[in-house]
UniProtKB/TrEMBL annotation:
Its cofactor is FAD. This is Acyl-CoA dehydrogenase-like protein. The keyword Iron does not apply. GO terms for cellular component: cytoplasm. InterPro entries: Acyl-CoA_dehydrogenase (IPR050741), Acyl-CoA_DH_CS (IPR006089), Acyl-CoA_Oxase/DH_mid-dom (IPR006091), Acyl-CoA_Oxase/DH_mid-dom_sf (IPR046373), AcylCo_DH-like_C (IPR036250), AcylCo_DH/oxidase_C (IPR009075), AcylCoA_DH/ox_N (IPR013786), AcylCoA_DH/ox_N_sf (IPR037069). SUPFAM superfamilies: Acyl-CoA dehydrogenase C-terminal domain-like, Acyl-CoA dehydrogenase NM domain-like, Cytochrome b5-like heme/steroid binding domain. The lineage of its organism: Eukaryota, Fungi, Dikarya, Ascomycota, Pezizomycotina. It holds the Pfam family Cyt-b5. It comes from the Eukaryota. Residues 1-77 form the Cytochrome b5 heme-binding domain. Belongs to the acyl-CoA dehydrogenase family. GO terms for biological process: fatty acid beta-oxidation using acyl-CoA dehydrogenase.
Length: 512
């Protein structure tokens, strides 16, 4: 690459028609950008021949530079770059941008070992390389994620790993040997959920096979041990066939016992006839299988319904991207073989609640990861933004906001890890009895934290926090979508109440 002195840039690049500028130690020829620059030509002409580093960073996200690399004509002679350009897989050097266990020396954690570190590294590279660009595109266009990405995820075992530890991982190649299927535990899932939430695209996050993650678990844990189950699991894990969980209805959201979709047995006892509707079903518009809660006589059961005659799905527009495939589903006299019943008839509530545990806990992982990205964005912005002649960080009111946000993320992450440790040491069947309450309270705590963090972050970012493009886009996205975690998988108030009711249930009989 050519090198220039700063004087040479001033002399040769100060023409307003052919302006050059310096950003850090790199020299850009802005001539080709004059006509297309989203911020207009005038501002570019104003910096002709100058060092525009601080102006540039107060107006753009760093990634802008990577996508305009063709404007680079050289670098400044003898100077070392001051600005860190993150590479795929890099950890952030910003304080509190990574969980404590990832910060390296001298920090320690009792929960994570080398296999966790290897998995984190591989998952971060994967996210930066493949998820971030596709998330950006799908989030904007509402398109379904590509089969190419699904195949890539399947190849490294990502689809299987997201369902948690179990036989489905044994003997599998997981991220090129980063972790053995047999040693895989819930902390590996925390890592995956947190890494995969980093693109800050809440609609895409759900588009990325969330239906499978929360639905296939019921089939895996409660389905019959036979060829049929193995075939469906393999089809879904291959990513060729899509599956989602269909519980909520217009009649019943968090109040699952009020569902009205019915499944009545035919007189010969060979089929169920299913009638009813399901609403807000993530991935429903493009799923092939629906793990569906139905009313069977006096109780609730769960059956696997295949897309076919009588099944209709329509897209519901929500405040996040339609890439998530959120659907209204109607079942109109759908004939389903009785073999598709999962678990026992009328035992659905127990299965649904066991499954909810995993879903709610996974939501805590991802919403905390997004909260952490927001904290990082706010720290970076407060460090570089000059207002009333000072950096934002120099304003005590801003530091108070940051303190509150950091404390909310760190305390909830610690609680998440403590509960995850219990999950690693408790059989799945016992978790619903001993952990459902704590997980409900944790979810409430995480989404309350998200509420506070979304609110404070917009105040720190001002108009940019309300703008879908440019520097504050992560803040805008978070403020628009954090409510999904407060509603999906059980509304904040309902899961909080569950936590307290479980505590009351276990209260000693004696007066204390
Ligand atoms: C290599 C040099 C530059 C490139 C590639 C570039 C590119 C861009 C892009 C893509 C945007 C859209 C917003 C975003 O995505 O962040 C933008 C906005 C903008 N740019 Fe630049 N730019 C450059 C240099 C500059 C410089 C030197 C200035 C000021 C002197 C400037 C002033 C602005 C302004 C005022 C906006 C609108 C910002 C807003 O709406 O908040 N740009 N630029």
């Amino acid at each position: 690459m050519k090198t220039f002195t700063r004087e040479a840039v001033r002399d040769q690049g100060s023409s307003v028609d052919n302006p050059w500028c310096i950003i850090d130690t790199v020299v850009y020829d802005l001539s080709e950008l004059l006509d297309t620059h989203p911020g207009g030509e005038a501002v570019l002409r104003q910096v002709a021949g100058q060092d525009a580093t601080s102006t540039f960073y107060s107006l753009h996200r760093q990634e802008v530079l990577a996508s305009y690399s063709e404007l680079v004509i050289g670098s400044i002679e003898g100077e070392k770059p001051q600005i860190i350009t993150p590479q795929p897989g890099d950890l952030s050097p910003v304080p509190y941008a990574e969980p404590l266990w990832l910060r390296g020396e001298p920090f320690r954690s009792p929960y994570y070992n080398d296999s966790h570190r290897r998995l984190q590294k591989a998952a971060r590279v994967f996210t930066d390389r493949y998820l971030v660009p596709e998330a950006k595109e799908c989030e904007a266009t509402g398109k379904l994620l590509s089969q190419e990405l699904i195949d890539r995820m399947e190849k490294v075992g990502l689809l299987r790993m997201r369902l948690g530890p179990g036989k489905h991982l044994h003997g599998r190649n997981l991220f090129d040997g980063a972790v053995e299927g047999e040693e895989f535990n819930y902390f590996h899932v925390v890592i995956l959920a947190q890494e995969m939430a980093r693109p800050m695209a809440r609609g895409f996050q759900d588009a990325n096979m969330a239906g499978m993650t929360i639905g296939l678990t019921i089939l895996l844990n409660f389905g019959p041990e036979n060829e049929w189950k193995t075939r469906i699991c393999d089809e879904v894990f291959s990513g060729q066939t899509k599956l989602c969980l269909a519980i909520t209805e217009a009649f019943a959201g968090s109040d699952v016992t009020s569902i009205r979709t019915t499944a009545e047995k035919t007189p010969d006892g060979k089929h169920y006839i299913v009638n009813g509707t399901k609403k807000w079903i993530t991935n429903g518009t493009w799923s092939d299988y629906f793990v569906t809660a139905v009313r069977t006589g006096e109780g609730i059961s769960v059956i696997l319904i295949e897309r076919g005659e009588g099944v209709d799905t329509k897209s519901i527009k929500t405040s996040y991207s339609s890439t998530a495939g959120t659907a209204l589903i109607t079942f109109d006299n759908v004939k389903v073989p009785v073999e598709n019943l999962l678990g026992k008839e009328n035992d659905g509530i127990r299965m649904i609640f066991s499954n909810f545990n995993h879903e709610r806990w996974a939501m805590c992982c991802s919403v905390l990861s997004q909260c952490r990205v927001v904290v990082e964005e706010c720290l970076k912005w407060a460090n570089q933004r000059i207002v009333f002649g000072k950096r934002l960080l120099e304003q005590p009111v801003i530091r108070q906001k940051l303190a509150k946000m950091i404390a909310l993320v760190e305390s909830n992450q610690s609680w998440l890890e403590s509960i995850t440790h219990q999950m690693c040491n408790m059989p799945y069947a016992d978790q619903v009895r001993h952990l459902a309450g704590s997980i409900g309270l944790l979810k409430m705590s995480c989404t309350r934290a998200a509420h506070e963090i979304a609110d404070e972050s917009v105040q720190i970012w001002g108009g940019r926090g309300l703008t879908q493009t440019g520097m504050g886009r992560h803040i805008e996205m978070f403020n628009r979508t954090y409510k999904f975690d407060a509603i999906l998988g059980g509304a904040e108030e309902v899961v909080a109440d569950l936590g307290v009711r479980q505590a009351i249930k276990n209260f000693p009989k004696a007066m204390l």
